[in-house]
Amino acid sequence: MVGVVIALLTVLVIMQTLSVSEGVRRSVNSGSDAQVNGALALQTLQQSLLTAGYGFASSPQLLGCPVSARFGGSPVAAGAASPRFPTALVPVVIDGSDPSRNGIRTISSAKTGFAIPSRVVAPGYDPAGAVTNSRVAVQSALGIAPGDLMVLAQDASLPCEVFQVSPGAAAPGLVARADDGGWNASGHPGASYGDGSLIVDLGTLSDRRFTVAGSQLRESRFQLAAADSAPSYTAPAALFANIVGLRAFYGKDTDGDGVVDTYDQVQPASAIAWTRVLTVRLALLARSEQYEKEVVTETYPLWSVGSDETFSPAPAPCGAGRCFSFDPSAQADWKHYRYKLFETVVPLRNLIWQS
């Protein structure tokens, strides 16, 4: 009887030890999952931001121009299901409508080789001309290929008009444009573009939208149909699991000294204002995969931003600095998970280099 009691006590101790050990192991592994998912998600956002503005940022006078695009004779951006075709030629759009789950949209040329804006030369493009409405005379057509989406523009105060390079070889220094049922409706582009206007090659257009929903970082991309180049967006696809928060800010140099001094979420309203945007500062919140039986997180996770820079909206005081809080309470049992915060500052190099 004594031996049986000792054996039972020994088994009980072993089982408790194994249970605690297994819980610790699972918590450590889930922490590793949060580390990997958060780091990869942050890297994905960073890579997209680094290419933002490629193909048109080298012409800063065009930044922010309203985009006019038609397909099948109807405006592409009007009445379309969200997300819509870009309504302005800008590199980055930050959606701060949900304070804890911001959206980030990056826009750039999708040319795999190079995309260099070219100058329109005489006789230019004239929609009323019998010949000048079928091609655009440019200083250099290097890299421009049939099927590319092109933007004709004068400056940011006027609409940037989109058309598609028509099939067939054009003469040197000419970009072919023929009326069709797609991007080249009759009379579009509708303005005349003379010597000194600019033409931008967007290729198939890189337009990527990142959102946080359902504890996932999701992405939707612009695409052209292979058959008729009809525009559409992919359904939001999950990139990384257990991502529950995202905040982003434009980093602006408001006094012209080359150093960011203000962070906000206000999209610049002019070309000059866009040249003052140097970085995007962002923070991403990852959650552990392991559900803990006990409450392991009592308060909302905080992002400390120090006390030197100016932020709008303003962060709340926390300790010796200031912090933004992330609200993960969309999931009722959020307190039973562990969280890890990732942050970085991404230089918008195409704006800085104007490349």
Describe the structure.
- By secondary structure, this protein is α+β, with helices and mostly antiparallel strands.
- The chain has helices at 2-50, 271-274, 349-353, and strands at 67-68, 70-71, 74-75, 92-95, 103-108, 118-119, 135-137, 149-153, 160-164, 174-176, 198-203, 206-213, 216-224, 231-233, 237-241, 243-252, 262-264, 277-287, 302-306, 310-312, 316-318, 321-325, 339-347.
- Strands 4, 5, 12, 13, 14 and 15 form a 6-stranded antiparallel sheet that branches. A 5-stranded mixed sheet has the order 1-9-8-11-6, with no helix packed on it. It has a 5-stranded mixed sheet with strand order 20-17-16-18-23.
- β8 (149-153) and β9 form a beta hairpin.
- The N and C termini lie far apart (85 Å).
- The model has no long low-confidence stretch (mean pLDDT 90).
Please specify the SSE layout and strand pairing.
Blueprint: H1 2-50, E1 67-68, E2 70-71, E3 74-75, E4 92-95, E5 103-108, E6 118-119, E7 135-137, E8 149-153, E9 160-164, E10 174-176, E11 198-203, E12 206-213, E13 216-224, E14 231-233, E15 237-241, E16 243-252, E17 262-264, H2 271-274, E18 277-287, E19 302-306, E20 310-312, E21 316-318, E22 321-325, E23 339-347, H3 349-353
Parallel strand pairs: 1-9, 17-20
Antiparallel strand pairs: 2-3, 4-5, 5-12, 6-11, 7-10, 8-9, 8-11, 12-13, 13-14, 13-15, 16-17, 16-18, 18-23, 19-22, 21-22
Number of helices: 3
Which percent range describes the beta-strand content? 25-35%
Could you spell the SSE succession in H and E letters? HEEEEEEEEEEEEEEEEEHEEEEEEH
What is the straight-line distance between the termini?
85 Å
Number of strands: 23
Average predicted local confidence, pLDDT: 90
Model regions low in confidence, pLDDT < 50 over at least 5 residues:
none
Structural class call reads alpha+beta
Q: What is the CA-based Rg, rounded?
A: 26 Å
Biggest sheet character: 6 strands, antiparallel
Tell me roughly what share of residues is in helical segments: 10-25%
Shape label: elongated
